[in-house]
Specification:
Layout (H helix, E strand, L loop, with lengths): L3 H13 L6 H8 L9 H5 L9 E9 L10 E10 L4 E7 L4 E4 L3 E4 L2 H19 L5 E5 L3 H8 L3 E5 L4 H14 L15 E5 L1 H9 L6 H20 L6 H8 L3 E3 L3 H14 L4 E6 L7 E2 L5 E2 L4 H13 L6
Parallel strand pairs: 1-6, 3-10
Antiparallel strand pairs: 1-2, 2-3, 4-5, 6-9, 7-8, 11-12
Helix pairs in contact: 1-5, 1-8, 2-10, 5-7, 5-9, 6-7, 7-8
Protein name: Cell envelope-related function transcriptional attenuator common domain-containing protein
InterPro entries: LytR/CpsA/Psr_CW_biosynth, LytR_CpsA_psr
Organism: Asaccharospora irregularis DSM 2635
Length: 318
């Protein structure tokens, strides 16, 4: 199940798309999302690769559907705000990446959140990928559909081979959606570019069996880009509804001033088109390893590719 939209939705609206004119209202509301349990010393340290004018924000979504306290980080992405090269980047971290989780040995990356939530997940990512993370944003399952609806839907290109799998999930996501204005259940009937509502977009993002993990991440990034486009043009009158939909489901280490400051940096870049990378870069190496099950190992050269993408704005050749 994809949580990527929930985390994106938050980052998109609250960090990327809020005009300074709404500062007072937003500042007050953002005070409720600060997570004091996160180890800020870990985030403030620069033991791993970092550069001035480049900020890495870990976006993560959990797969809990009943607000359970412990769940897995189903979607993990690094949003890079690159003021050196004036670009925005999004790196998808495969949940099955085979990593060394401190204190727990070699396992899937997604398990780190179960053992130690955001603190351990950040430590695991920094240690294995030799990359400094400055901030994190966590969003749970329930926020995504409300956010999409509040933004007027997301525009994506639905391929003919995706329709059957997308529609398979719609009855379930429709039942989960508690918005009294959701209307009658609607299936997707034709391929092509179209605007999906909240439960349709969630179904689109959950497609995973009819193609590859890379295609799944491609769909998630397409949803993120559409959310960014919709959020930056959102009328001020819509702020209260969207903010109130998001806040109950969000945690971050950032203070209100840090969130608004980061949003200002993003707007200063000007171009909100996302460059994207899938990590590990060679997902074809996936295989079963011992009790870990199906995992995706990675090589040292792939870490160098990740660093080149984030810090030097070098897109790997496919």
């Amino acid at each position: 199940m994809s949580a990527l939209k929930r985390l994106v939705a938050f980052l998109t609206f609250l960090v990327i798309a809020l005009p300074i004119g709404a500062y007072g209202y937003v500042y007050h509301k953002l005070g409720f999302v600060h997570d004091s349990s996160i180890n800020t010393d870990l985030l403030n340290n620069t033991d791993y690769k970092s550069e001035k004018n480049i900020t890495n924000v870990l976006l993560l979504g959990t797969d809990g559907r009943n607000k359970e306290e412990v769940s897995r980080s189903d979607a993990m992405m690094i949003l890079t705000i690159d003021n050196k090269n004036k670009s925005l980047k999004l790196t998808s971290l495969a949940r099955d990446t085979y990593v060394d989780i401190p204190g727990h040995g070699k396992q899937k990356l997604t398990h780190a959140y179960v053992y130690g939530q955001a603190n351990l997940l950040i430590e695991t990512i920094e240690h294995n990928f030799q990359l400094d993370i400055q901030h994190y944003v966590a969003v749970d399952f329930f926020s995504f559909m409300d956010i999409v609806d509040a933004l007027g839907g997301v525009t994506v290109n639905v391929r003919s081979g995706e329709i059957r799998e997308l529609n398979k999930f719609i009855p379930e996501t429709y039942a989960w959606h508690k918005n009294p204005s959701k209307g009658s259940m609607q299936y997707i009937k034709a391929p092509g570019e179209q605007t999906l509502n909240g439960y349709q977009a969630l179904s689109f993002s959950r497609i995973r069996k009819n193609d590859s993990a890379m295609e799944r991440d491609r769909r998630q990034r397409e949803v993120i880009q559409s959310l960014i486009t919709g959020a930056k043009d959102l009328p001020v009158t819509k702020y209260p509804g969207v903010v109130n939909s998001i806040l109950p489901y969000v945690k971050t280490n950032m203070t209100p001033n840090e969130i608004i400051g980061l949003g200002t940096e993003v707007l200063g870049i000007g171009n909100l088109d996302l460059k994207s990378l899938e990590f590990p870069t060679n997902t074809d190496t996936g295989r079963k390893i011992g009790n870990a099950g199906y995992v995706i190992p990675f090589d040292d050269y792939e870490v160098n590719v990740l660093h080149d993408f984030i810090f030097e704005d070098i897109q790997p050749v496919k």
